[in-house]
């Protein structure tokens, strides 16, 4: 075979480079963060938004694209934006976790985030990661396959469905209130920023989100739970779903008429518009809460409409089909349906490249209890508890409530060997003492209550450090300490394999036998069931300092968090680069 002429070889190389550039695009946005007034439920509320939108702008991209977002902070608060579920390979500086990976972008300052979407397809989302401001600062990230082909029937249309909440309260004060009581509630639930017609102002119904569909077409509903407070059930009257993906990872498809989605999670479901077209159909998001004796919230329910258009009326008898159909919802205290829904999730083909590693030997194991406790006010070492004003409510992992630094972000301190790292403690790999973690008698908070002896907790900045490429198993154990909620646990910078879940206290000898090592779902947020446990494994192959926390705001704000530190690997290609030169500088974190 003869040699290719030099000019022909150069032309071929140029064509390959051009083709590669054409396949991977630059997706660029400018996010202007500022305050504006919105009126709902007869009340004018000052809220912080991106580009004046609620929810914020959607980022739509293709696998392999590079995304650049210029954040212009015109609000009075320090701001970061977290790209929830984006893996940020060797790019921890762009993760946007306030005081973990960066200092907040100060008022009247700008910062540009740059990250790529290599190897990721599906639905993710972005949100603020400083205080409770993410109640209004959030939006969807849609990543379509480069080939244009899905491992399921290609939908006719993508439809983001973001479940959230509307708050009348000053969101910067919300976090502080968690330390004093559980009485800190949103005003209403929302679907795509709309409160729905069950909420009203002086008898005038709030606007509802309306989805117009055409008979016979297939819609990919990209569900995101952006709420601070609650898991939600989601249904559309007269329609069923096929669940196909979660957290930007494909699943083995399964059919259902109800979807359960916890804060931080995304669920991709196909819905065929195959109901009688003369009617309209309510879509409903219903908040789930633990039953008494847990503290009880108002009932949060938002509903929108599915309305058919372009109906061929020939031969269609619409008589008697007027009015909107309401779906039959689970009870809001039903925590069993969400348990089995999440238990139905299994990984889709093709097999994940890290699965063989996860099936092999485990290098590090953590058993982490998740609960609430108390610390004494005023830095005293002894105080009354059981709801006494002498003590302050906190949340914990293994009885340590996470303290967020306020002078230097942890990743920056690590990068420059800052002395502040000397105060960072290793998170205990097991709880300090064993007890019946899921005993319902621990739920009520009262002087002399059973929980009182278990309440004492301490505050510290904690981390779990792993060598590069270690295989890590974490068992999360929900407890009944002072409440019995589920716990949606989110790990930044990594996906993980959910091996099993169960009720009651985890027993390694018994429960490890139930691990799914064949086709476990791949997630970035795991639903740890109420009064139960969940086991995950991941490969620590992304150097950096990565936040691990519950996505309920009333858990993360008072301390249910830690940091996963992954060491650099042995080569430049496995080493975190230095920080960008324009990384925001720290002043004291604004509260």
Tell me the fraction of residues in β-strands, as a range: 35-45%
Percent of residues in helices comes to under 10%
Q: Structural class of the secondary structure composition?
A: mainly beta
State Rg.
Answer: 24 Å
For the termini, the CA-CA separation is: 71 Å
Shape assignment: globular
How many β strands by DSSP?
36
Widest beta sheet: strand line-up: 10-9-14-19-16-17
| Quaternary class | single chain
**H/I helix tally:** 7
Uncertain runs are 1-22
| Rounded mean pLDDT score | 93
What does this structure look like?
It is a single chain. The chain is mainly beta and 591 residues long. The chain is built from seven helices and 36 strands. Strands 10-9-14-19-16-17 form a six-stranded mixed beta sheet, with no helix packed on it. Strands 13, 15, 18, 20, 21 and 22 form a six-stranded mixed beta sheet that branches. A six-stranded mixed beta sheet has the order 24-23-29-34-31-32. A hairpin with a 2-residue loop joins strand 11 (200-201) and strand 12 (204-205). The longest helix has 18 residues, at 6-23. Residues 1-22 have low confidence and may be disordered.
Which SSEs are present, and which pair or pack?
Blueprint: H1 6-23, E1 26-40, E2 43-50, E3 59-62, E4 66-73, E5 81-84, E6 109-116, E7 122-128, E8 138-144, E9 157-166, H2 171-178, E10 188-191, E11 200-201, E12 204-205, E13 210-213, E14 218-225, E15 231-236, E16 241-246, E17 249-256, E18 259-261, E19 266-272, E20 280-288, E21 301-308, E22 324-325, H3 336-343, H4 355-359, E23 364-376, E24 391-397, E25 400-402, H5 410-416, E26 425-426, E27 458-460, E28 462-466, E29 470-478, E30 487-491, E31 496-503, H6 508-511, E32 522-523, E33 525-528, E34 532-540, E35 544-550, H7 553-556, E36 561-566
Parallel strand pairs: 1-4, 3-8, 9-14, 13-21, 20-22, 23-29, 25-27, 26-28, 28-36
Antiparallel strand pairs: 1-2, 4-6, 5-7, 7-8, 9-10, 11-12, 14-19, 15-18, 15-20, 16-17, 16-19, 20-21, 23-24, 29-34, 30-33, 30-35, 31-32, 31-34, 35-36
């Amino acid at each position: 075979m003869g040699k290719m002429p030099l000019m022909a070889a150069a032309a071929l190389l140029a064509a390959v480079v051009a083709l590669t550039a054409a396949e991977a695009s630059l997706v660029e946005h400018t996010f202007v963060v500022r305050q504006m007034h919105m009126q709902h439920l007869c009340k004018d509320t000052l809220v912080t938004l991106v580009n004046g939108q609620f929810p914020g702008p959607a980022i739509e991209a293709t696998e392999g694209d590079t995304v650049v977002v210029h954040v212009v902070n015109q609000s009075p608060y320090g701001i970061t934006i977290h790209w929830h579920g984006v893996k940020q390979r060797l790019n921890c500086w762009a993760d946007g976790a306030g005081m973990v990976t960066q200092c907040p972008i100060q008022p009247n300052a700008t910062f540009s985030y740059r990250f790529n979407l290599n190897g990721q397809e599906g639905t993710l989302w972005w949100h603020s990661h400083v205080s409770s401001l993410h109640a209004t600062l959030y939006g969807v990230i849609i990543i379509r396959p480069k080939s244009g082909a899905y491992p399921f029937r290609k939908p006719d249309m993508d439809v983001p469905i973001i479940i959230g909440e509307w708050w009348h309260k000053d969101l910067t004060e919300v976090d502080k209130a968690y330390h004093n009581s559980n009485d800190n509630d949103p005003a209403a639930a929302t679907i795509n920023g709309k409160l729905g017609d069950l909420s009203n102002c002086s008898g005038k119904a709030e606007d509802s989100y309306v989805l117009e569909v055409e008979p016979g077409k297939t819609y990919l509903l990209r569900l995101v739970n952006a709420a601070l407070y609650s898991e939600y059930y989601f249904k559309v009257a007269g329609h069923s779903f096929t669940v196909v993906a979660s957290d930007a990872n494909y699943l083995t498809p399964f059919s259902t008429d109800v979807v359960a989605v916890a804060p931080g999670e995304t669920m991709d479901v196909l819905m065929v518009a195959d109901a009688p077209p003369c009617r309209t159909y309510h879509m409903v998001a219903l908040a789930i809460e633990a039953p008494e004796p847990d503290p009880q919230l108002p009932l949060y329910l938002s509903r929108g409409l599915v309305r058919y258009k372009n109906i061929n009326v020939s031969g269609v008898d619409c008589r008697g089909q007027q009015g909107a159909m309401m779906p039959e919802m689970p009870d809001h205290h039903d925590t069993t349906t969400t348990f089995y829904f999440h238990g139905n999730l299994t990984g889709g083909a093709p097999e994940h490249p890290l699965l063989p590693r996860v099936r092999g030997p485990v290098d590090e194991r953590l058993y982490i209890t998740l609960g609430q406790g108390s610390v004494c006010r005023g830095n005293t070492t002894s105080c009354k508890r059981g709801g006494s004003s002498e003590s302050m409510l906190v949340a914990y992992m293994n009885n340590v409530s996470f303290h967020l630094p306020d002078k230097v972000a942890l990743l920056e301190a690590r990068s420059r060997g800052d002395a502040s790292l000397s105060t960072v403690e290793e998170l205990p790999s097991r709880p300090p003492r064993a007890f019946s973690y899921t005993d319902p008698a621990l739920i009520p908070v009262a002087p002399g209550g059973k929980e009182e002896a278990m309440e004492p907790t301490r505050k510290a900045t904690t981390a779990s450090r792993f060598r590069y490429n270690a295989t890590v198993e974490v068992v999360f154990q929900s407890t009944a300490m002072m409440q019995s909620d589920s716990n949606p646990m989110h790990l930044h910078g990594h996906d993980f394999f959910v091996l099993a879940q169960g009720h009651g206290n985890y027993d390694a000898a018994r429960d490890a036998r139930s691990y799914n090592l064949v086709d476990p779902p791949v997630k970035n947020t795991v639903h740890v069931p109420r009064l139960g446990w969940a086991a995950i494994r991941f490969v620590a192959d992304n150097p950096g300092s990565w936040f691990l926390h519950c996505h309920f705001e009333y858990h993360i704000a008072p301390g249910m968090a830690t940091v996963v530190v992954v060491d650099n690997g042995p080569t430049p290609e496995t080493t975190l680069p230095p920080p960008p030169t324009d990384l925001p500088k720290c002043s004291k974190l604004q509260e």
